[in-house]
Specification:
The protein has 437 residues and is mainly α. The chain folds into two domains: 13-307, no CATH class; 312-436. It is 69% helix and 3% strand. It has 17 helices and four strands. The strands form two sheets. Strands 1-3 form a two-stranded antiparallel ribbon. A two-stranded antiparallel ribbon has the order 2-4. Mean pLDDT is 90; it is low at 1-9. Bound molecules: zinc ion (ZN) (2 copies). The site of one zinc ion (ZN) has 7 residues, from helix 3 and helix 5.
Length: 437
């Protein structure tokens, strides 16, 4: 691989519109149904919530506050875990039916459209990175020539409009064809009304009559308004502010914003490898990604299986390309020519070490599986056929595991050394640039 292959072209999308009204000429129209629902629910929540707390029957304020917070949390978590990572991106190879049913129910509290529509929109949002069809991004933060318009559009305004028909969106919608997801989409409005309005009103009436019903209705509405803005900050805040590290998209790493349960962080890693159940590579992905913990908990409970993650080789490719691209942009052409081949060679060595590590990891998984199988009763017949006792078989497998462990330690050291060499070269190139400047 040459250094030019290491260094993909950077695409900075040009703004498509100047004013909001420009979008009508491109085929947008006001969505009066969703538009008025969003506007009215926001106005009522802001105006009537203080009234509800003031006039709430004694003690009910605690129920109201608890409902709002739990509602917002459920709405946010079901969106990040299920609509986003598991369904839009297919972060697990096997999502069990009870998981679908539970999350399709919980996701109603997010009030962000059915899981089917939500995930299809998000697939298009990501596909723009590859296709460059910037105009299709449903919540682009780069369509307008001014930041405040980009913020308002990507955060909320996009939902107030019917977007022009696109074959791409239609295909993305049809691709989300799990029967439970299709069923939720079909009955979405009725289910949404039951979860967000009928249920809290009924509970409120049971607790404290009609006034109680009114109070819990507002508590529920405040819950979904919070959940909505929490998700929307991913489209606005983390696409507009933070450290730009992405290879292709306009997404940024916003380390400070933990509201969307991990989606605000490493947004660039996520855009570069969206199928990953994690939102970022490396250790900081662990520290700042509560959605990842939730998915790991689901796996521990057997509710999802076969989590997808970038291999070390894929991670190395993404990180190296980013580094090369950024360094090249800051280097003088003469200095760059001197370093281009060296960086390409060091990159190759790093990728090879990463591939070797990935191979060992696969072997380890296979061996662990064999050891588990060998302990199971079903293997008795196979052992008999091979003419070895269970003790002999286990001893042999464990010895192989020990050997593999030692080899993996070496492979890890080699991988770290190759990575360090690549980064040292990047650092030296930076020094050469500074000396030359
Ligand atoms: Zn994004
Ligand atoms: Zn995504």
């Amino acid at each position: 691989m040459s250094a030019s292959q290491l260094s993909p072209p950077t695409t900075t999308p040009k703004p498509l519109y100047h004013r909001f009204s420009d979008i009508f000429a491109a085929g947008f129209s006001v969505d009066w149904g969703i538009g008025s629902f969003l506007v009215i629910s926001h106005v009522l929540v802001f105006l009537l919530t203080p009234v509800a707390y003031i006039y709430a029957p004694a003690g009910l304020w605690k129920v109201m506050l608890t409902w709002t917070l739990i509602h917002a949390f459920i709405g946010a978590l079901s969106t990040t875990v299920y609509s986003h990572r598991l369904i839009a991106h297919g972060a697990a190879k096997d999502v069990r039916l009870p998981t679908h049913i539970a999350f399709l129910g919980l996701q109603l509290f997010a009030v962000q459209g059915s899981v089917r529509r939500w995930s299809a929109q998000h697939v298009i949002h990501h596909s723009v990175d590859k296709t460059g069809q910037h105009h299709l991004d449903p919540y682009s933060a780069t369509w307008f020539s001014t930041s405040w318009r980009n913020f308002l559009w990507s955060h909320m305004l996009t939902y107030l409009f019917n977007h022009p028909y696109s074959r791409e969106f239609d295909a993305a919608l049809k691709a989300k064809a799990h029967p439970a997801i299709v069923w939720q989409d079909k009955h979405y409005v009725l289910l949404l009304i039951m979860a967000n309005f009928a249920l809290p009103i009924a509970l409120g009436i049971a607790l404290a009559g009609w006034l109680g019903g009114f109070c819990l209705l507002l508590a529920s509405s405040a819950g979904f308004v919070l959940a909505q803005h929490n998700t929307w900050t991913v489209n606005s805040v983390t696409h507009m502010w933070g450290f730009k590290k992405g290879l292709m998209s306009s997404a940024q790493n916003n380390y400070l914003w933990l509201g969307p349960l991990g989606e605000g962080n490493h947004h660039a890693d996520h855009h570069d490898y969206p199928r990953d159940f994690r939102n970022g590579f490396g250790w900081s992905g662990w520290v700042l990604d509560p959605t990842r913990y939730a998915i790991l908990a689901l796996r521990a409970l057997g509710l999802v299986q076969g989590l997808n993650r970038a291999s070390r080789w894929q991670e190395a490719q993404i990180i190296a390309r980013r580094k090369v691209r950024d360094t090249k942009a800051k280097s003088g052409s003469v200095i760059w020519q001197q370093w281009e081949d060296k960086l390409a060679m060091l990159g190759e060595e790093w990728f090879a070490a990463a591939k070797a590590w990935d191979q060992f990891k696969l072997e380890k998984i296979k061996l662990t599986h064999q050891i588990r199988q060998a302990g199971a009763d079903g293997m008795a017949a196979a052992r008999g056929r091979m003419g070895v006792t269970q003790d002999e078989l286990m001893r042999d497998l464990r010895a192989r595991r020990e050997g593999l462990r030692a080899e993996m330690q070496q492979a890890r050291k080699r991988l770290k050394a190759r990575r360090d060499e690549f980064f040292t070269a990047i650092w030296e190139l930076k020094q050469a640039n500074m000396a030359g400047a």
